[in-house]
What does this fold into?
Amino acid sequence: MTIQLRQICLVAGKLAPVVDDLRHILGLEACYIDPGVKVFGLENTLLPVGRNFLEVVAPITENTAGGRYLQRRGGDGGYMVITQADTREAQSAVRLQALENGVRVAYEHDRDGWNLCQLHPGDMVAAFLEVEWDQHEDLSGHWMPAGGTGWEDKVRQDVTRDIIGVELQGPDPSALADLWARVLGKTIQTVEGLPTLALNNAVLTFVEAVDGRGPGLSGLTLEVKDRDGILDRAQARGRGISGDRVDIGGVWFRLTSARQG
It folds into this structure.
């Protein structure tokens, strides 16, 4: 069973400023706007990072789940971990494992060879976990949330290469890791003293929430080619910097230099 990280969703009070920061600081390009998110009272923009995506959503109506999340966490931040299963059976297995561990299905969609399953953030504690499957079963290409195809010419990797890690925080990192491991059918490993889970192309790391914002998706690790340029542009735009980390949209982006070759 293969589970691939394909997309990270951030939620913001205002869409344009965060998208603008991602474009200018990280050297990304917008590739898709999904009209379908209006049913949730949201607007969005997707930006490809290699063969995967960053999405930003923002409420456009009152009393949305996204708006309540902003209030609970005290501002912009990480919202969803969105994955792709290599087969329908793998997706169904994650759904079943979630239910067996008391995790509710928050939303499901099934249409024309495409199925998505969102697991409730209240039960997953730190974020929505979404598992998608579509009939193309292409883990590095066709992606329905970005319109399927047509986004490829917006991929830029001269500054930012890929998303290789996700940081999830909560009051008890070990318990949080154990829950996500049981749902995803993964084995917990310890890296630098922290519990981690390995997806096919990225690592989930679980840390203690010490910033006063409570449980949430607190950070991403990026493989980048222009670390110094990113830090300079972030500073020029007044964004927070701490060592090799940049604060964009309420999420710490940790910058790791891309491997040669």
In short: Helices lie at 15-26, 65-73, 88-100, 121-124, 173-184, 227-236. The chain has two domains: 3-154, 160-257. The domain at 160-257 is CATH 3.10.180.10 (2,3-Dihydroxybiphenyl 1,2-Dioxygenase; domain 1).
